[in-house]
TrEMBL record:
Keywords: ATP-binding, Membrane, Nucleotide-binding, Transmembrane, Transmembrane helix, Transport
Designated name of the protein: Uncharacterized protein
One GO BP: transmembrane transport
Family the entry assigns: Belongs to the ABC transporter superfamily. ABCG family. Eye pigment precursor importer (TC 3.A.1.204) subfamily.
UniProt organism field: Anopheles gambiae
Primary residence: membrane
Localization annotation: Membrane
């Protein structure tokens, strides 16, 4: 399936009224069965072009794009492998492959054993079988790259785009990766990747090279035609110089500004016929033979004695044949739409994945549970019998604030730190149509909420008992319900901050907003002492409702008198409603506060979903 694009122009705004044209009407065709490299100096527009072709960027783009002869622009035909390999670090290679297979291929299309066979075959092909049981967090750069490719091969896309697949890899891993891509292209796929400074060996593996400079296409043709092409505009590649390096030096204007001349020459379609006779007579006259290519020597010949290279020649020999021709894998599933599982099935798979992740990440489960228990005991010991002792009612009310803040911080901050990384995985997976964002959102909520609720219940139970709160089941349940609601609102707040800001800003803004919510809860400064405007703001603070509800839990509903110690002459707060009156808390408002917390929870989740979608859209 060829990728054809015509007159693509991409404009971005760089200031209030300033615009910059990143791509100036570039055209080209990337053919199926070919491995294409998009090259050019930094800032030439390579990533921009790739993003446009994949549909990652749509805003500010003009021109036409078509996949295949029917002129389709259906993005379902392509997969995009981003430069960074964002993988779930706690899963093994085999687990992550199987989960991807479950998300991409329905059980009606392939049963369990067929899926296992498919996964094994792809892992074999990409030489990952030996690290099948290795967790993704422990893979090397080359293995991670190959796994990223393997994950996208599961549904056998006819078009594969890769952003800098060799960046960060050593020369032998780069060569190996490109050889793999070449093998995948030979099976009928269209493989397009951006690449920086390839070695001569890697460069010559590309069937087609598309070079950009200053937003113009300055070469499109066979890698082997580079030298005669440059010579045709008067640029002579020195002997024993890598043609790719020379091409980049030219586009970087090291020999003068040839951009216009090259852009004109690049419109000649015959350079893609590989390899052409040197038109200026440099290489003799054998029509279409490699002998026409000197003076740049071929990077590899049979006398090449580089040990690493020789080793590679042997290694790459075993990777062919690859996964399987594009129209045959898996053979019994031709119609892509029938292969996909339902969103509900995907929801269950994502929930399973999140649960395993939660269980394996001991810092967010085991450690957090341990810390909650220890902190609850310490806070319980600190506030002692404040729940029943009439001389300690102020301390008891203060302990409510401590509970609210403790559960708030310990829930918000993990979200702030977790989501920015999680977003990268989500971006990659949702863009390649593994699942819809809303499916991920619901799965993530359904798995994280029970854990958060459990932690809040553990904490609430310990502090309730240790601070001598009334020994009444109803009040205990009301107390726990408020802390649970406070925790799940915090969970939503963490999602909002984590999807809206980066880790540093999220931590900073999260801490400041929490402090303000704390100040507006009516304890540090009474509502009656606030101006009308400030009191209005206080209605936005969820701490206000949590705090009021906890005070009502402890002191409302005809609570019996508190205990005044024998050695005290006078206990001001012996009557339970005294403290409520002084704090300005209105009796009978428990349900209102709880309902308001539920509204806060729903609102923050809706906002969190919006910020999540917005962030993913922005790229
Ligand atoms: N959204 C944007 N806003 C402003 N400028 C942009 C935007 N997108 C791209 N550019 C500019 O367009 C030019 C091309 O960017 P692009 O990332 O496509 O280059 P590149 O060839 O991939 O570079 P590199 O090899 O360094 O990654 C750069 O100057 C970049 O600053």
């Amino acid at each position: 399936m060829d990728v054809t694009f015509d007159n693509i122009t991409y404009t971005v705004s760089t200031g209030k009224r300033e615009k910059k044209t990143v791509l100036n009407g570039v055209s080209g065709r990337f053919q199926s069965g070919e491995l294409t490299a998009i090259m050019g100096p930094s800032g030439a527009g390579k990533s921009s072009l790739l993003n446009i072709l994949t549909g990652y960027t749509t805003h500010g783009v003009k021109g036409t794009l078509a996949f295949g002869s029917s002129g389709s622009t259906n993005r379902k035909l392509c997969s995009y492998i981003l430069q960074e390999d964002y993988l779930q670090p706690l899963f093994t290679v085999h687990e992550i492959m199987l989960m991807a297979c479950d998300l991409k291929v329905s059980s009606d299309s392939l049963n369990r054993s067929e899926k296992l066979r498919l996964v094994d075959k792809i892992l074999d092909t990409l030489h990952l079988s030996y690290c099948k049981q290795t967790r993704c967090g422990s893979l090397s750069g080359g293995q991670r790259k190959r796994l990223s490719i393997a994950l996208e091969l599961i549904d056998n896309p006819p078009i594969l785009f890769l952003d800098e697949p060799t960046t960060g890899l050593d020369s032998s891993s780069s060569l190996y990766t490109i050889k793999l891509l070449q093998g995948l292209a030979r099976e009928g796929r269209t493989i397009v990747c951006t690449i920086h400074q390839p070695s001569a060996t890697v460069y010559e593996m590309f069937d087609h090279v598309y070079v950009l400079a200053e937003g113009h296409c300055v070469y499109q043709g066979s890698a082997l035609n580079t030298v005669p092409y440059l010579r045709s505009v008067g640029l002579h590649c020195p002997a024993y110089h890598n043609a790719a390096d020379y091409l980049l030096e030219v586009t970087n204007k090291e020999y003068g500004n040839f951009t216009k001349a090259l852009a004109k020459a690049a419109t000649d379609p015959s350079w893609r016929l590989a390899p052409l006779v040197d038109r200026l007579g440099g290489g003799g006259g054998g029509g279409g033979v490699p002998a026409a290519l000197p003076p740049c020597p071929p990077a590899y010949d049979s006398n090449h004695n580089d040990a690493v290279y020789q080793g590679h020649r042997k290694e790459v020999a075993v990777v062919v044949p690859l996964v399987g021709p594009v129209d045959q894998l898996p053979g019994k599933m031709a119609d892509q739409s029938q292969r996909r599982p339902s969103e509900f099935a995907k929801l269950l798979i994502l929930m399973k994945r999140s649960n395993i992740q939660l269980y394996r990440d001991w810092t967010v489960t085991h450690l957090k549970l341990f810390v909650h228990i220890v902190c609850a005991i310490v806070i319980g010991l600190l506030f002692g019998d404040s729940g029943i002792n009439a001389t300690k009612s102020i301390s008891n009310v203060a302990s409510f604030m401590v509970h609210i803040l403790y559960l708030w911080y310990t829930t918000v901050m993990p979200g702030v730190l977790k989501y920015p990384y999680e977003m990268n995985i989500l971006k990659k997976e949702s863009f390649n149509r593994w699942y819809k964002i809303r499916t991920y959102f619901v799965a993530s909520m359904l798995t994280s909420l029970p854990v958060q609720i459990f932690f809040a219940i553990v904490y609430a139970t310990i502090v309730y008992a240790m601070t001598y709160q009334p020994c009444e089941l109803e009040r205990y349940l009301m107390f726990t319900a408020v802390l649970v609601l406070n925790t799940i609102v915090a969970d939503g707040f963490g999602l909002f901050l984590g999807t809206f800001l980066n880790e540093i800003n999220g931590t900073f803004i999260g801490a400041i907003m929490t402090c303000f919510m704390f100040v507006f809860c009516g304890f540090l400064i009474m509502f009656s002492h606030m101006s009308d405007a400030m009191r209005g703001i206080s209605y936005l603070s969820s701490h206000r409702y949590s705090f009021e509800a906890l005070v009502l839990t402890a002191y409302d509903d005809s609570r019996s008198d508190l205990v005044c110690p024998k050695d005290e002459m006078y206990c001001h707060y012996v009557k339970a409603n005294t403290i409520m009156r002084e704090l300005g808390v209105v009796s009978g408002n428990y349900l209102f506060n709880v309902v308001t917390l539920v509204v806060h929870f729903v609102a923050i989740k809706v906002v969190g979903f919006w910020t999540l979608k917005r962030k993913l859209k922005m790229g």
